[in-house]
Amino acid sequence: MNMKRLILVGAALLCVHASGCVVTPAPEPAPPPTPVPAPPPPRGTTTEVVVTVQPPPPRREPIPRARRGYVWVPGHWAWRPALGRYEWVPGHWVPVRPGLRYIPGHWERRGAGWVWVPGRWI
After folding, report:
1. Furthest-apart CA pair in the chain: how many Å?
2. End-to-end C-alpha distance for the chain, whole angstroms
3. pTM to 2 decimals?
4. What is the spatial distance between Cα 88 and Cα 58, in angstroms, rounded to a whole number?
5. Per-block mean pLDDT, blocks of 10 residues, the chain (122 long)
């Protein structure tokens, strides 16, 4: 009987000792940090993005009749990194800058990729 009593006492002590344990759920993971947008580049500088996928050929757009005081900027394909593909940006009018000529933007081959060269006034 002593052995049986010893086992019972041991089991009782184990239960008393274990009852002091508290199981709590794991804390919720912290939310990811909110991205802070990068400040815009200084005026006169550009960020060059190299795209490894060749842009599709330009779409044929009807060129509207000339508008006094405006220059037609042809449509172009723009790379959308979030989508992983190009999207067509339709042509539009921009006000003339007296004494300057508009050079449309275009895709240029650079190394193993393509870079968008924005339109500019010269």
Report:
1. 112
2. 106
3. 0.59
4. 9
5. 66 57 61 52 69 95 92 96 95 96 95 94 96
